[in-house]
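Annotated sample (chain length 227).
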Amino acid sequence: MKHIVDSSDIDGILANGVNHAVIDVDNTITKSNIAQFYMFIKRERLKSRLLWWLFLMYCFAAAPFYLAVDRLSRDWFNHIFVQRKFGKYTYEQLERYAERYFEEKLRKQFIVPVHDLIFYLKEKGVQVTLLSTNFDLIVKHYGTYFQVPYVCLPVVKHDSGIKIDFSQLNGFKRNYIQRLNPATTMAIGDSKYDLPMLEHVHYPIIVANKKKKWMKSIQREAVLIRA
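Output written by the structure step:
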């Protein structure tokens, strides 16, 4: 396993006929997660400093539960946290918050080597697709920024609020990546939750500063991009 140093390392991969790159979003393109978006919304709504600090105390108390759920299953976490925390807002509210969140926060949190790599791959004629279990109100802004297609969880209007379609969540990344030719596809991710796509392709790329235990399950040689 080696680190990517410059574009020549990528050119070596592309020389093997790679024409598609599938890229995770959270903590791969930007240092971010869905909980951060929730905190952004709450900070906007809680104008009182006292209410904000009380809310932070609540988050501190609840964090171990959600972290434990996430370790057990990212799918469970999405069901329990995402629908519960965002389901009470209207589609229009979340749409406005998501746009502001991307412009005010996420654009400042790009992981520069990955950000630049996406544009480089496009220049080389590689089809870039963003693949994320985050929901489309956020991911679509990445798609617009990079001018690439994306696949993620749809948000639909439901009664007075919204409903996130979790029907495709089970095996989400595996089901998508298996449609692609592994010999001509690279996948870029940052965590064990990206293993389905990293294990499928012939050219797995991991956003990390050091090796981790979960990486051992990848049979082909993976390369690292420093985060």
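Annotation: The chain has a mean pLDDT of 88.
Annotation: The longest helix spans residues 49-72.
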